[in-house]
Every structure is written in structure tokens, then in C-alpha cells.
């Protein structure tokens, strides 16, 4: 019985470690998924990344209905002020384009804006292991993911990561 318990605990640990692992690149599913642009066109996620090639990029996954996202807006604006050369890409999980666009305007979000076509439980969300919003992903100038899973309580880590990348 003791052996079975230890095996089960080991499996749970490995499963949890795998799900929170730091990824350094996006999956093929994520890269090929299309997102809605503010001009109502569809853009592949890979194209969004290509448009920011050679730049440090912060991706924020958010929604206008998300209280934690709204609460974190001043922090993202502080990051933008402290790191003005960094590109900011906002990906909304809103249910409608009208609410998404109203949220952009209401919170005066500066950066590139896109909306997932199938929200929190869709293909894109699953492809980036989305389990909480706001979620932040940082990509370095080479296109490598350097911070895969950060949330609104991780702004010190996000700021420190950006500062370190700017020195490189």
C-alpha cells in the first residue's frame, strides 16, 4: 500500500510539474491559430509574433469582464512607461468584439490588440495553457519565450525580466 501511495504521489508531482513548466517556444497549434484584429480581420498568431521580430514583447491575455485584469491595468501602464521600447500585445478573451473594443477604449490600452475567436476554453487558450487571466508572457529579441506563465501578482518578476532583457 505504501508503494502505491508513493507512486501516485510521484505521478501527481510529475503531472503538476509538466503543466507549469517553463516553455521556450509556442506550439504549432498556438502559432497557427488566428485571432481577430481590431479591423475585424483574422491574423495568425505566428504573424503577430513576426511583426514584432527583434523586439522584446509582453503579451497580456485579458478580458474586459475580468476584475483582476482591470485591477492590473495601472501596473501594465507603469511597465509601459518604464519599458517604452518593449512591444505590448494584448489578446482578449472577451465573448464579443464590441465588449473587447469598449474595454480597449475604456482602459486606454496602448499596443497591438487581438481577440481570441473562441475565448477561454478554445483552441488558442488551450494551446498556450491558459488557466488564469490576466496572464503575461515575455518574449526576448530572438523570439524565445523567457517568461511563460506570469499573473497579476508577478509584476516585480515581469519588471525584473524586462530590465534584464534590455541589458542584453
Automatic annotation (TrEMBL):
<feature type="signal peptide">
    <location>
        <begin position="1"/>
        <end position="21"/>
    </location>
</feature>
<keyword id="KW-1015">Disulfide bond</keyword>
<dbReference type="Pfam" id="PF13905">
    <property type="entry name" value="Thioredoxin_8"/>
</dbReference>
<keyword id="KW-0676">Redox-active center</keyword>
<dbReference type="InterPro" id="IPR012336">
    <property type="entry name" value="Thioredoxin-like_fold"/>
</dbReference>
<dbReference type="InterPro" id="IPR050553">
    <property type="entry name" value="Thioredoxin_ResA/DsbE_sf"/>
</dbReference>
<protein>
    <submittedName>
        <fullName>TlpA disulfide reductase family protein</fullName>
    </submittedName>
</protein>
<keyword id="KW-0732">Signal</keyword>
<dbReference type="InterPro" id="IPR013766">
    <property type="entry name" value="Thioredoxin_domain"/>
</dbReference>
<dbReference type="InterPro" id="IPR036249">
    <property type="entry name" value="Thioredoxin-like_sf"/>
</dbReference>
<feature type="domain" description="Thioredoxin">
    <location>
        <begin position="24"/>
        <end position="167"/>
    </location>
</feature>
<keyword id="KW-0201">Cytochrome c-type biogenesis</keyword>
